[in-house]
Design a protein that fits this description.
Length: 301
């Protein structure tokens, strides 16, 4: 599998504070890579290091198979589009005027500008002044500016922040279409529910460290859902296991988090030996957001 982005022990410190530590990114070509983590986990800092906006304290970033250095920066950035923090654009100018400024700065053709505008479906809005745009329209204009050079990699930092549900759906649809068209999209968010519908690969950052990287299926297999035990005396069962596990009760169901299958069989055997009738054992169903919250709250796998 060809990698668009690969980092080795990417680290950024500010004095005694480590913001990103030993991050090894692996972003395959042609995917939507969901870069997830709570606010303050180091996502934006990592993305800025990939774009050479911030110099790493240590470690290395490779983009398109080449190290991002002072010597290669200009050439590599020609293959990268990005939208970091606030959408760009002059509010007193129209969308078309903003795109013409982008065209002159990048030295690109009319055809490239037209392609970018049509990709984000803004062709009917370009005569309006940017100050009249909704937030979703401003985000799409910013993405059009990033797409104008027809990049191989598009980096988006929290692109759905502040958007209403319709705006969020527009950005989701856009990311899917871009990936289908061969653009690798790296998108950060602190809300996994937004990314779940688009990302084909996931990376989760917590307290500056990468705690998971892989597919949705691999994320589920890395987590251990709670065990639910239905029995005829759940109160006595809870007392039996309280010294060993963090248990909770819901009607006649005893919930025990974080135990594997072998431990589960031992719990059932202990219930039976104590004369507690067990008539149901199952794993709790988890959403991807449940897994994400469990991992980030706990600091990792």
């Amino acid at each position: 599998m060809s990698l668009i982005v690969a980092t080795e022990k990417l680290t950024k410190t500010y004095g005694p504070r480590t913001v990103v530590q030993d991050v090894d990114l692996r972003i395959p070509e042609g995917c939507v890579y969901g870069f997830l983590g709570p606010n303050g986990s180091g996502k934006s800092t990592t993305m800025k290091m990939l774009l050479s906006l911030i110099r790493p304290t240590s470690g290395e970033a490779q983009i398109l198979g080449r190290p991002m250095t002072r010597e290669t920066r200009r050439e590599l950035l020609g293959s990268i589009g990005s939208l970091i923090e606030s959408p760009p654009g002059y509010a007193h100018l129209t969308g078309a005027e903003n795109m013409r400024i982008t065209q002159r700065l990048l030295g690109i053709t009319d055809q490239q500008v037209d392609f970018a505008v049509r990709t984000v479906r803004m062709q009917d809005q370009m005569d309006k002044k940017v100050r009249e745009f909704s937030l979703g329209m401003k985000q799409r204009l910013g993405i059009a500016m990033a797409l104008a050079r027809q990049p191989k990699l598009l980096i988006l930092d929290e692109p759905t922040n502040g958007l209403d549900p319709a705006g969020i759906e527009e950005i989701r649809d856009l990311m899917k279409r871009l990936a289908d068209g061969g653009v690798t999209v790296m998108v950060s968010s602190h809300l996994l529910g937004e990314i779940d519908k688009t990302a084909t690969m996931l990376g989760i950052l917590s307290q500056g460290r990468m705690i998971f990287q892989g597919t949705r299926e691999e994320l589920f297999s890395a987590a251990t859902p709670d065990v639910l035990i239905e029995c005829n005396d759940p109160i006595r069962a809870q007392r039996l296991f309280a010294p060993h596990f963090e248990t909770s009760l819901n009607n006649e169901t005893l919930r025990i988090p974080g135990i594997d299958d072998r431990t589960t069989s031992g719990v059932v055997a202990a219930c039976v030996s104590e004369g507690i009738g067990v008539y149901g054992v199952r794993r709790d169903e988890q959403t991807l957001e449940d897994v994400f919250m469990d991992l980030t709250a706990g600091g990792g796998l």
